[in-house]
Amino acid sequence: MIIDRLENWKHYHFGSAWTKAFEFLNTLSVDAEEKKYTIQGDDIFAIVMSYDTCAPETSLFESHQKYVDIQTVLIGAEGFECSFTDTLSVCTPYDEETDVQWYKRMIPGQTRVDVCPETFVMLYPHDAHMAALMTDQKPEHIKKVVVKIKTELLLDA
Questions:
Q1: What is the radius of gyration, based on Cα positions, of the chain?
Q2: How far apart (Å, rounded) are the C-alpha atoms in residues 95 and 90?
Q3: What would the 3-class secondary structure string for the chain be?
Q4: Residues 87-103: tens digit of each pLDDT
Q5: What tens digit of pLDDT does each residue of 22-50 get?
Q6: For the chain, which has fewer Cβ within 10 Å, the N-terminal or C-terminal residue?
Q7: Angle formed at CA 94 by CA 88 and CA 95, multiple of 5 degrees
Q8: Nearest residue to 44 via CA among 146, 157, 155, 156
Q9: 151 neighbors 30 (Cβ within 8 angstroms)
Q10: C-alpha angle with apex 16: 99 to 4, nearest 5 degrees?
């Protein structure tokens, strides 16, 4: 997992896929339409969405194998709990079609971070993550973007 400010993306040398993802992120405004954006076919794409944050007790951890996630918030703030996949109990096995595996929240995550505008979190396949968490003990409506990059595009960089 990487947690940093958007302005620091050039400090990481993951190749052209990484560059394309952040060039896209730098074009987004808070007015971005909620939809899927194609950046490089199925290899790199983004989804802009909005929802209300919630308590961790009502959420599950998830992980992905095909894609690395880069997540940032456009409006509001959301909490993330992160844990390594091998420390969790699987509640829904990996589904190749949706590229997601779900895990039960046994104890609080090993890492807790709040993401707000101008910051990002990057999640590898071994990083189980629980997003959409409240940051101030009450739900908040947020707008965010998730960029998905095929894992091998970063590993080969």
A1: 15
A2: 12
A3: CEEEEHHHHHHCCCCHHHHHHHHHHCCCCCCCCCCEEEEECECEEEEEEEEECECHHHCCEEECCCEEEEEEEEECCEEEEEEEHHHCEEEEEEECCCCEEEEECCCCCCEEEEECCCEEEEECCCEEEEEEECCCCCCCEEEEEEEEEEHHHHHCC
A4: 899 999 999 999 999 99
A5: 999 999 999 999 999 999 999 999 999 99
A6: C
A7: 155
A8: 146
A9: no
A10: 75
User: Token pair of 71, please?
Assistant: 């997540």
pTM over 0.70: yes
CATH top-level class of 2-155: mainly beta
Is the separation of the CB atoms in 52 and 144 below 8 Å? no
- CA atoms within 13 A of residue 37's CA, in its CB half-sphere: 19
